[in-house]
Task: structure prediction
Amino acid sequence: MAIELVLPAGEAPEETRGDLAVMLTGGGARAAYQVGLVKGLARHFPQLRFPIITGVSAGAINAIFLAAQEGPLRETADLLADVWLSLECRHVFRPNYAALLPFRSAMKAILPAKMTGRPHGLLNAGPLAETLRRVYHCPQRNRPIEGIRRNLARGDLKAVSLMGLDYTTGQSVRWAQGRSVDVFEGPNRRSVQTEITVEHVLASSAVPFVFPAVKIENSWYGDGGIRLATPLSSAVHLGARRILAMSTGYQRTPDEASKPDLRGYPPAAQVMGQLLNAIFLDVIDEDVLRMERLNEMIGKLDPSQRNGFKEIELFVLRPSVDLGNIARDHEKHLPRNMKLLTRALGSRETESNDFISMLMFEPHYTSRLMEIGESDVASRIDELRVFLGEPASPAIRAVPS
Result:
């Protein structure tokens, strides 16, 4: 009797499956969860590379770090984790208390513009700009990030892109660096071939009303998730045939979704949490469903009838627990001025902590999210091996000699 190794059927060789892209969504401090995912992937797949990298909002911060860092993924993951573990709220923002003054609008009507022109958001993002310039080794304003240039020149990276919203036109803008991009034009969207700077990252992550808009050339930009209906499309337009999407949104069960988070009139923190979830989390779920249905339809067509359409392999990693609920246990670690701000917005009047979780740039919270990310990768390792084209644990069966 001989022993035969049986590998999963239908696996195509790596070189015929097309380029792999990683897509990182937003979520503020919850993007620390993505760092845990990257660490988990690096541990189990040390040779893994992402030829195409796309990001939006807080995911843009991680995306550009991955695109700019040189060396193996495991080393990159450890460095990125060190960055997040060193972050505190003061390294990301300062509160703009004047933005909360109820008479600010009235004062603007009677005082000169130069006295009332600031602040433009609840939070000042100056500390984040300083942090990113240090982390990306790019101290000058409006200068390309050299690490991206080097990785593109070596061929370790094929393309990187970020999304932003042009407040002056209302268009979603995709900034891309690297290989030529497919046309991404329409009344409400456009593509710009450019060299990514810290300003592009700041713009993509500038949550409306929370962070100020960022000026790039002659336009003002904000968070790319605001009008981004198809977050996966950026990777497709850059030539990806496989997409690994990293979401920070927990998929609630029907029972969890039906349970109210508060009684009575919703405070500002509740409304803002729902708004931010709609921008950062709901859209990726809808786009994933849309792509799965499109793949199913294409798969049923004869190749001669597909008209150039191709199936896109998709794998979504998302939290196994609600990251917003975890924030409740860590609110005590927020600095005093931030607790005053969040409580002024009614954070204690609701069970929902989604708004707080996005501002929880504190090591106690972010380290916990990284642990969850690593664990979630480990729990799906066999699925990931198949998706990434690595041999799964082979089945062994006996066959007649």
The chain is about 40% helix and 15% strand. The two ends are 4 Å apart (CA to CA). Residues 181 and 238 are 5 Å apart (CA to CA).
